[in-house]
Amino acid sequence: FSQSYGEKAFELCKQIFLEDTISEEEMQDKLMMASWHGGMSIAYSQVGVAHAMSYGLAFVLGTKHGIGNCIVFDHLEEFYPDGVKLFKEMKERHGIQLPQGICSNLSNDEMNTMIDVALGLAPLWENALGKNWQKTITKDKLKSLYSKM
């Protein structure tokens, strides 16, 4: 179930954010359905890399969940090359500017807390990267990614 719901949400988002052929009202209807399908996808699975890292942003910086996921996802080409490319295209098309440099003035303790929060979400990492996720996601890897945000 999860994959089919996610695919439907993805297709609706492409229509909403990349096509010029739908009315404002139809766009809002499709956005509502994309949100519903995305939520149903998550209900039958776990979320992945962006969510795990966004919890670190929320815990240390108070970043809201939705914007945190966007900030993180913008830097995840290594994990989602096609998705990030499409996301950047959507941002550019709609003139969306995400906050930049939000991790640039963190103390070592704050950075380490963010990393520890993210690493503590093992089910999310396993869902996204498999049982051996810890070979890919290390403290250094997370520090490198957070430092770009």
Secondary structure layout plus pairing:
Elements: H1 2-18, H2 24-43, H3 49-61, H4 65-73, H5 81-93, H6 108-119, H7 122-129, H8 139-147
Helix pairs in contact: 1-2, 3-4, 3-6, 6-8
Task: Summarize the structure in words.
- The chain is mainly alpha-helical and 149 residues long.
- It folds into two domains: 1-45; 47-149, Dehydroquinate synthase-like, alpha domain.
- The chain is built from eight helices and no strands.
- The chain has helices at residues 2-18, 24-43, 49-61, 65-73, 81-93, 108-119, 122-129, 139-147.
- Helix 1 (2-18) packs antiparallel against helix 2 (24-43), helix 3 (49-61) runs antiparallel to helix 6 and helix 6 (108-119) packs across helix 8.
- The chain is globular and about 50 Å long.
- It starts with a helix and ends with a helix.
What distinguishing features does this structure have?
Dehydroquinate synthase-like, alpha domain; 8 helices; 2 domains; 0% strand; mainly alpha; 149 residues; globular; single chain
Instruction: Work out the number of β strands.
Output: 0
The averaged pLDDT comes out at 92
What is the succession of H and E elements?
HHHHHHHH
Indicate the proportion of strand residues: under 5%
Give the overall silhouette.
Answer: globular
The level-1 CATH class of the largest domain: Mainly Alpha
Describe this structure in a few short sentences.
With 149 residues, the protein is mainly α.
